[in-house]
């Protein structure tokens, strides 16, 4: 994972305002997650004992194509491009891929399935074995569907200690068949941070529905909506990573806010 692939990733991350990946140790980890199925994650280690572990879920199809050669897709995704920045804040970071039996189709219409929760549960267990720290799931765009569904399905055990939903998908379209509303939000028992850009122009993630989303998380526990504004002019489609939907120009501020919120829950003053 190091070498030319890591150097190229570092140069791209620098151009996008994210931390150069080469500043941290990375390793590809693959775990058996269902009979005959494996799930891989790119693990980035902080320089000190981790405050917490964060598992990052990219949007769209979620299939990163992880291999020893690097990341085949998704390097520009908001969470993926900032994986080193999360490590800078003291987290053990795992960027999760689609499972081995979904290499072609990715996570389309799979994110709310029990099989997906089983795969993520296996990754969480492996990460807990690596570091005795709370595990949080962070999703962006379609990744929020994964995070919400997994947290709901694993509420009885083996699930995360908290979740973060950034640019949550609340509406279907011709290409989007799953939303966070399908995730049984009322079953989530862990702390939840909802992050959104006030001017997110993506048709499947309108800011106006975020307070309803927060109210649907009806179980007792810490919940908050963080709203961002500003940033750089969009350089991509409204639903892609280099628009308000992907916090273009706000990488440092958004990651710090998420990191501070998680740290405040893990180590309350």
Explain the overall architecture.
The protein is α/β, with parallel strands linked by helices and 269 residues long. An 8-stranded mixed β-sheet has the order 1-2-4-3-5-6-7-8, sandwiched between helices. The chain has helices at 3-16, 78-81, 83-88, 114-130, 143-153, 210-216, 251-266; strands spanning 25-34, 37-45, 52-57, 91-96, 135-140, 162-166, 192-197, 223-228. It contains 7 helices and 8 strands.
SSE layout and pairings?
Blueprint: H1 3-16, E1 25-34, E2 37-45, E3 52-57, H2 78-81, H3 83-88, E4 91-96, H4 114-130, E5 135-140, H5 143-153, E6 162-166, E7 192-197, H6 210-216, E8 223-228, H7 251-266
Parallel strand pairs: 3-4, 3-5, 5-6, 6-7, 7-8
Antiparallel strand pairs: 1-2, 2-4
Tell me briefly what this model is.
The protein has 269 residues and is of the alpha/beta class.
Can you tell me the CATH architecture?
3-Layer(aba) Sandwich
Shape type:
globular
pLDDT averaged residue by residue: 92
Q: Into which percent range does the helicity of residues fall?
A: 25-40%
- Broad CATH class: Alpha Beta
What is the strand tally? 8
Reported by name, the CATH topology is Rossmann fold
CATH homologous superfamily title: Alpha/Beta hydrolase fold, catalytic domain
Task: Work out the count of structural domains.
Answer: 1
Distance between the termini: 38 Å
Unreliable sequence segments: 1-16
Strand order in the largest sheet: 1-2-4-3-5-6-7-8
For the sheet with most strands, the description reads: 8 strands, mixed
- Gyration radius, rounded: 17 Å
Number of helices: 7
Secondary-structure element sequence? HEEEHHEHEHEEHEH
How would you describe the oligomerization state of the chains in this entry? single chain
Instruction: Report the sheet-strand fraction.
Output: 15-25%
Global structural class:
alpha/beta
């Amino acid at each position: 994972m190091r070498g030319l692939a890591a150097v190229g990733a570092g140069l791209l991350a620098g151009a996008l305002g994210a931390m150069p990946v080469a500043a941290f140790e990375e390793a590809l980890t693959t775990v058996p997650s269902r009979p005959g199925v494996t799930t891989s994650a790119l693990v980035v280690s902080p320089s000190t004992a981790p405050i917490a572990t964060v598992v990052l879920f990219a949007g769209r199809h979620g299939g990163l194509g992880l291999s020893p050669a690097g990341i085949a897709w998704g390097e520009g995704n908001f969470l993926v491009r900032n994986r080193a920045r999360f490590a800078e804040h003291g987290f053990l970071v795992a960027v999760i891929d689609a499972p081995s039996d979904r290499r072609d189709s990715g996570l389309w219409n799979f994110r709310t399935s029990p099989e997906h929760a089983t795969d993520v549960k296996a990754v969480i267990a492996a990460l807990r074995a690596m570091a005795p720290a709370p595990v949080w799931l962070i999703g962006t765009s379609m990744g929020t569907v994964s995070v919400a569904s997994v947290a709901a399905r694993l509420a009885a055990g083996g699930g995360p200690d908290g979740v973060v939903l950034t640019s949550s998908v609340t509406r279907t379209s011709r290409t989007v068949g799953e939303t966070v509303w399908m995730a049984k939000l009322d079953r989530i028992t862990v702390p939840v941070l909802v992050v959104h850009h006030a001017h997110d122009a993506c048709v499947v993630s309108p800011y106006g529905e975020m307070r309803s989303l927060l109210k649907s998380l009806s179980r007792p526990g810490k919940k908050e909506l963080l709203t961002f504004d500003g940033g750089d002019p969009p350089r991509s489609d409204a639903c892609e990573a280099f628009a308000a939907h992907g916090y273009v120009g706000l990488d440092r501020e958004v990651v710090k806010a998420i990191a501070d919120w998680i740290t405040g829950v893990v180590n309350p003053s």
